[in-house]
Each structure stands twice: as structure tokens, then as C-alpha cells.
Amino acid sequence: MQEGYDRCTAEYESVRRSESEPALELLVGKLHKGARILDIGCGSGVPAARQLSCIFEVTGVDLSSEMVRRARKNVPSAAFIHSDIMTVDLTDSHFDAAAAIYSIFHLPREEHRGLFARVHRWLKPGGYFLATVSEEGEAPYIEEDFFGTTMYWSNYGRREYLEMFRDTGFHVLESDALGHGYQEAHHAAREHHPLILAQKVQG
Ligand SMILES: C[S@@+](CC[C@H](N)C(=O)[O-])C[C@H]1O[C@@H](n2cnc3c(N)ncnc32)[C@H](O)[C@@H]1O
């Protein structure tokens, strides 16, 4: 995974750089200026960290050293950590929100529940979690040509994710068509992935 994203950073960034992330508006309206946001699998910081760092204090975490190197250049006002999100050591009850935009499905799906529990711990009570998920479950598979490199994916379906969010102590606020789109290349059709916006249950 790390090598794959190290190799395709430039190509991936060239697509994402010119995009914006409308789904982030869901968080923006709920947070105060200067709120702390964790960007999980932040890539090279565009578009999400770039958008958010105008108003908020952003910390991005990414497994790819090349992505993190570029993110530091693209968004100098944010902090970036080069690490696996499953091993990174972050402070409990520290963040007002977390966003995982197109990143969760790169982790083995058996780890997703554990990731949600970690995010829950890092959020303040009442904190928000915005995540791109998938409509249908997919067993692990390899895509041979993802921006010119081999890539791994696995995910559950939206229904299972909703259950996991609830089980790990989140209240789901929104879970469907939020007008999100994603394009693997300028000439490719947009992919639509559902998003879940959830809130850490208080107390
Ligand atoms: C499809 S890209 C999404 C990047 C960015 N969030 C965006 O919206 O364009 C997935 C990112 O997740 C990162 N990633 C994959 N597995 C990870 C893990 N276990 N921990 C941290 N980052 C990871 C990859 O390195 C890559 O930068």
C-alpha cells in the first residue's frame, strides 16, 4: 500500500489538486473556528486538508511518505504525520472532528471496526466523524492499474458500517447521497461513494 501510493502520488495529486470536497461542508457548518480536525489517509493534503486548514487546525496522517512530503509542501499550515493510522499514537479526546475521505477501504476490512474505535477514543465527546464508505461489501481484491500502480481494497457495505458506527458509540447523523463524487482520471466517469456523518455520543 505504502509503496503503491509512493509511486502514484504525483498522478493521483494531479487529479485531486483541481477538485474540491463538497462533503466537507457538512463538518464546516458544525465546528467552531480553530477546531481540531484529524484527516485520516490525508494523501498529499489536497483537496481536504487544504480546504479545512483555512478555518481549522488540521492534523493529517498518511502511510505514504511521498504523500506526506507533498502534503507538507501543499498545506504548510497543517501538521502531517507519516504513519499507519492503526498504529499512530494520538491523544485521547483531542479532536473536534475526524474525516476519512477515500481511505478506509485501503485497510483490511477486518480492521475497520478497530479503526472506528480508535477514532472514537481520539474525539472529544460530541465530536464528529465523516467517512467515505461503500454501498456494497467487497472481499479483498487487487486493482492492477490504479493511477499506474497495483492497489489493494476491501470493504463492507453501508448497512454493516452503520451498525459498526452505532456499536462503537457513534450516533449517525447522515448516511446517504451527499452529492459526493470521485474521478480516477480526468477522462474517467465519477464514482459515487456514500458518506457517513456521525457524532460521538456524549458522556
Ligand atoms: C485514495 S487516497 C485518498 C487521499 C485523500 N484523502 C483524498 O481525498 O484524495 C487513500 C490514502 O490513504 C492512505 N492510506 C492507506 N492506508 C493507510 C493507513 N493504514 N494509514 C494511513 N493512511 C493510509 C494512502 O497512502 C493514500 O494516501
Account of the 3D structure:
There is one protein chain. The protein has 203 residues and is an alpha/beta fold. The protein has one domain (2-200): Rossmann fold, CATH 3.40.50. The protein contains six helices and eleven strands. The chain has helices spanning 2-16, 25-28, 48-52, 65-74, 112-122, 158-167; strands at 36-40, 57-62, 79-82, 95-100, 123-132, 138-146, 149-155, 170-174, 182-183, 190-191, 195-200. The strands form three sheets. The protein has a seven-stranded mixed sheet with strand order 3-2-1-4-5-11-8, with helices on both faces. It starts with a helix and ends with a strand. It binds S-adenosylmethionine. Residues 1, 5, 16, 41-43, 48, 61-64, 67, 84-86, 101-103, 106-107 line the site of S-adenosylmethionine (SAM).
End-to-end distance: 37 Å
> What CATH architecture label applies?
3-Layer(aba) Sandwich
Count structural domains: 1
Instruction: Determine the mean pLDDT.
Output: 90
List the helices and strands and how they pair.
Elements: H1 2-16, H2 25-28, E1 36-40, H3 48-52, E2 57-62, H4 65-74, E3 79-82, E4 95-100, H5 112-122, E5 123-132, E6 138-146, E7 149-155, H6 158-167, E8 170-174, E9 182-183, E10 190-191, E11 195-200
Parallel strand pairs: 1-2, 1-4, 2-3, 4-5
Antiparallel strand pairs: 5-11, 6-7, 8-11, 9-10
Helix pairs in contact: 1-4
Bound molecules: S-adenosylmethionine.
